[in-house]
From TrEMBL:
<dbReference type="Pfam" id="PF13537">
    <property type="entry name" value="GATase_7"/>
</dbReference>
<keyword id="KW-0315">Glutamine amidotransferase</keyword>
<feature type="domain" description="Glutamine amidotransferase type-2">
    <location>
        <begin position="2"/>
        <end position="208"/>
    </location>
</feature>
<dbReference type="InterPro" id="IPR017932">
    <property type="entry name" value="GATase_2_dom"/>
</dbReference>
<dbReference type="InterPro" id="IPR051786">
    <property type="entry name" value="ASN_synthetase/amidase"/>
</dbReference>
<comment type="pathway">
    <text>Amino-acid biosynthesis; L-asparagine biosynthesis; L-asparagine from L-aspartate (L-Gln route): step 1/1.</text>
</comment>
<dbReference type="InterPro" id="IPR014729">
    <property type="entry name" value="Rossmann-like_a/b/a_fold"/>
</dbReference>
<keyword id="KW-0547">Nucleotide-binding</keyword>
<keyword id="KW-0028">Amino-acid biosynthesis</keyword>
<keyword id="KW-0061">Asparagine biosynthesis</keyword>
<dbReference type="Pfam" id="PF00733">
    <property type="entry name" value="Asn_synthase"/>
</dbReference>
<comment type="similarity">
    <text>Belongs to the asparagine synthetase family.</text>
</comment>
<dbReference type="InterPro" id="IPR001962">
    <property type="entry name" value="Asn_synthase"/>
</dbReference>
<dbReference type="InterPro" id="IPR006426">
    <property type="entry name" value="Asn_synth_AEB"/>
</dbReference>
<dbReference type="InterPro" id="IPR033738">
    <property type="entry name" value="AsnB_N"/>
</dbReference>
<protein>
    <recommendedName>
        <fullName>asparagine synthase (glutamine-hydrolyzing)</fullName>
        <ecNumber>6.3.5.4</ecNumber>
    </recommendedName>
</protein>
<dbReference type="InterPro" id="IPR029055">
    <property type="entry name" value="Ntn_hydrolases_N"/>
</dbReference>
């Protein structure tokens, strides 16, 4: 994995080399092995490299032999060897970067459709005067840009844009999105004027300075479901996972695997060990020293079965306090969950042994792994209750629930939303639409709900489609990239091979949630590799014992951050509503930890964002 950045001066001015150097410096953690810049008149690229393939060569930015086309590339093209064999090109290296140049030289920017892997790259074409930005199909790797009348700039992370675009403010319109998702769905961000290239899209900046954005691949919104038996579905998923694992092991450095003890990481670890055929596998787990949430015993059990060399780290309250601010800087956004800190500590552990690690990310959103998916149809049927009745009864019911029933409260809040799309979004939303409007003093000025409206088919298919966009791409994958890159570690999620994604959306919902069993087809694949007690145990997730860690200090910290005179949250949100959340949580009448976390994380990020505006931060 690497960091890329660049500038095109739309006013015709030459690129300042010092700006490129500073952009690259802010991406050093993404590529500590090498760094380089390239400038030609009004266009310049910067690159920092984490060497994974063709370690001694493939220096970037890289140009074609005639110097007319230049690329800055982040990621891995996992089928690059097959692609090279079909190209007549004067290769000077043996890596995937030059393969991208050769493909473009022959087929143009549409050659992206031939790629398998995870990638974000910029390509300057001196013949056409165009600059192309391309992001992988699922949005595994990030790519941001900014444009005004004078400058177009891009980078792997927002912080690297700031030396080129100057001081920016918070995009207040995006706060509505944040309070609904704990992240901001593409194409927007929390920083005014900064946009994400959406997953599966490419952007072209023409010679005339015009920006054109188009999709080259999309998750099927209305895929025709295959007429397959449950047994055939299991075989298809098993074969697709084997193929994806084989691709994911393409590297010239050691590859390990995360192993939480849950079904997804256990299956990935087992398949990886099988594919490596006895070469040895390092696996990695994190615990919290709290028996209520730890899964280390399960991870050890699976490690023994697959024969991996297993490593563990215990994450403490001190780790959390020491890293919260730093990791907010790395993420360029509020940490969406306390588990972000644990993911970073896990990446630090893995980086001591390997440069690449596989994860089980994406399985839940493709195959129906969350408990809420059992209630997908009920989420739609709730619309049959008259809106005035639903709007009165459900909020009262939710507020009447004791603090110990906070999970039920999430369901009640979701069912009380006004539209089917808002009800789907409500399952993961910290705040309802009405609460967001109250906190921000009015309704959203734009909608981020499109993924919840575009899906077709049955209720489960629509919910999976939506979650594969706003929740997976803009939250979980963003978290995975930043927390692993903070430790200079490359993360690869085999479930997100686009061939497996297309297969998943072609399978009937009956093999995903079957007789009340979530992720049924994945569990049946796993039974051939791991014991039934691992397969069938209840989904736990990566839970952080915040209640125990901050039992003594949370009240003072939360009050200071959310109500103090320097508080950003106190300035932009309704202070009376925030104080009410704090009071009810501290009194124990309601469990507002998830919503308070959302506000606390926003405050911590904003303080780090202000520091980042200073050159040299």
């Amino acid at each position: 994995m690497c960091g890329i950045a660049g500038v095109r001066r739309l006013d015709g001015a030459p690129v300042d080399p010092a700006v490129l150097v500073e952009m690259a410096r802010r991406l050093h953690h993404r590529g500590p092995d090498d760094a380089g810049t390239w400038i030609e008149g009004s266009t310049g690229f910067a690159h920092t490299r984490l060497s994974i393939i063709d370690l001694g060569a493939s220096v970037q930015p890289m140009a074609t032999p005639d110097g007319r086309k230049v690329i800055a590339f982040n990621g891995e093209i996992l089928n690059y060897r097959q692609l090279r064999d079909r190209l007549d090109y004067p290769f000077r290296t043996s890596g995937d970067t030059e393969t991208l140049l050769a493909l473009y030289d022959k087929h143009g920017v549409e050659s992206v459709t031939q790629l398998r892997g995870q990638f974000a790259y910029a390509l300057h074409d001196g013949e056409t005067g165009e600059l192309h930005l391309v992001r992988d199909r699922l949005g595994i790797l990030p790519l941001y840009y900014y444009v005004d009348n004078e400058i177009f700039a891009f980078a792997s992370e927002i912080k690297a844009l700031l030396p080129a675009i100057g001081e920016r403010r918070v995009d207040v319109a995006s706060l509505h999105d944040y309070l609904a998702h704990r992240s901001v769905p593409a194409p927007y961000t929390l920083v005014e004027g900064v946009r994400k290239v959406p997953q599966g899209h490419r952007l072209t900046l023409g010679r005339d300075g015009q920006v054109r954005l188009r999709a080259y691949w999309q998750i099927p919104a209305d895929a025709a479901h295959r007429d397959v038996s449950p047994e055939e579905a299991v075989r298809l998923v098993a074969d697709a996972l084997d193929a994806s694992i084989a691709d994911a092991l393409v590297a010239d450095v050691p590859v390990g695997a995360y192993l939480s003890g849950g079904i997804d990481s256990s299956l990935i670890s087992a398949l990886t060990a099988k594919a490596k055929q006895g070469e040895g596998l390092h696996t990695f787990s994190a615990g919290f020293g709290d028996p209520r949430v730890d899964e280390l015993n399960w991870a050890r059990k699976v490690a023994d079965i697959v024969g991996s060399e297993h490593h563990e780290v215990i994450v403490t309250a001190e780790d959390f306090k020491a890293n919260w601010h730093k990791l907010s800087w790395h993420r360029d956004a509020p940490l969406s969950e306390p588990a972000d800190v644990a993911v970073f500590k896990l990446a630090e552990l893995a980086r001591q042994q390997v440069k690449v690690v596989l994860s089980g990310e994406g399985s839940d959103e493709l195959f129906g792994g969350y408990p809420k998916y059992r209630f997908a149809q009920a989420t739609r049927w709730a619309g049959l209750i008259p809106a005035p009745l639903r709007g009165r009864i459900l909020p009262r019911l939710e507020r009447a629930l004791p603090a110990s029933r906070s999970r039920l409260g999430v369901a009640v809040r979701a069912m009380g939303e006004g539209s089917s799309a808002e009800r789907m979004r409500g399952w993961f939303a910290p705040f309802t639409e009405r609460e967001r409007d109250g906190l921000l003093g009015g309704p959203a000025v734009r909608s981020a709900i499109a993924p919840y409206q575009r899906g077709r088919g049955d209720a489960l298919s629509r919910m999976l489609y939506a979650d594969s966009h706003a929740w997976l791409a803009d939250n979980l994958l963003e978290r995975g990239d930043r927390m692993s890159m903070a430790a200079s570690l490359e993360l690869r999620p085999p479930f997100l091979d686009h061939r497996l994604v297309e297969l998943a959306f072609s399978l009937p919902s009956s093999v995903k949630v079957r007789n009340g069993v979530t992720k049924w087809v994945v569990k049946e694949v796993a039974r051939a590799h791991i014991p039934n007690d691992v397969v069938d145990r209840a989904k736990s997730g990566f839970k952080v014992p915040l209640d125990a860690w901050f039992r003594d200090g949370l009240r003072d910290m939360a009050n200071d951050l959310l109500t103090g005179p320097s508080s950003f949250v106190a300035q932009v949100l309704d202070p009376a509503a925030v104080r009410k959340l704090l009071a009810e949580h501290h009194a124990g009448t309601r469990n507002e930890q998830p919503r308070l976390w959302t506000l606390l994380s926003l405050e911590v990020w904003h303080r780090e964002f202000e520091k980042s505006l200073r050159v040299g931060a």
